[in-house]
Write a structure and sequence with these properties.
Blueprint: H1 2-65, E1 73-80, E2 83-87, E3 99-109, E4 116-117, E5 122-138, E6 141-152, E7 160-162, E8 173-174, E9 177-180, E10 185-188
Parallel strand pairs: 5-8
Antiparallel strand pairs: 1-2, 1-3, 3-4, 3-5, 5-6, 7-10, 9-10
């Protein structure tokens, strides 16, 4: 009788030990697969960042060739015949999984202070906002990486323009304006310039 009790106790102990071992192994496996997912996601984010940065550098190269190529809209870029060119947005599946879209938009100036704005009447034709966005699917969810920057037409000469956009009125245009605190004028200037050190060309929201 006593042998049967001892045998029964041993069986229960074995079952408990196996259960504890199973729980431990399950926890290790969960941590392992979680780590694998994190490593994979980090690698994909790094690749997406590289593609987004490449998009910005491509737009910079296109602007260097001819500033007038920077028309507002959404694009992708490709390197053909020795230089970068704009293509339709999301026209390529980079590395088999990434979509890239590059958005180009205008910035505007306050007619009295020359401060850059996201919207307004006085368009600054010598500065553009560029946003490079890369998206991809990870475990059924859409992930995105977005990099904004601002490009200026630094070749534009230094000239003076009256406050209010050279005559005022809505729909006016200006070129790379900055405010001269000693007068009520907006000045066109090349960049880099000593004025860049004291006056920011970027929107206050940037």
């Amino acid at each position: 009788m006593r042998k049967k009790i001892l045998k029964g106790q041993s069986s229960v102990e074995i079952i408990i030990a196996l259960a504890i071992l199973l729980i431990f192994i399950s926890g290790v496996l969960v941590l392992f697969f979680y780590s694998v997912d994190n490593i994979r996601q980090s690698a994909e984010i790094d690749q997406a960042r590289n593609l987004a940065r490449e998009g910005l550098e491509a737009v910079r190269s296109i602007a260097e060739e001819d500033w007038s190529n920077l028309n507002n809209g959404s694009y992708d870029v490709e390197y053909t015949s020795g230089h970068w060119q704009f293509t339709a947005p999301n026209s390529y599946l980079w590395l088999g999984k990434y979509h890239r879209q590059i958005d180009i938009s205008s910035l505007y100036r306050d007619s009295s202070t020359c401060e850059l704005k996201e919207s307004g009447d006085l368009e600054d034709t010598d500065i553009k906002k560029i946003v490079s966005v890369v998206s991809w699917e990870f475990k059924g969810k859409t992930k995105t990486v977005s990099y904004p920057t601002y490009l200026t037409n630094w070749r534009n000469p230094l000239v003076e323009c009256p406050s209010g956009g050279g005559g005022g009125g809505s729909g006016g245009q200006a070129s790379a304006l900055t405010f001269d605190g000693s007068s009520s004028s907006c000045l066109l200037y090349t960049s880099p310039s000593p004025r860049d050190l004291s006056t920011s060309r970027m929107p206050s929201s940037a």
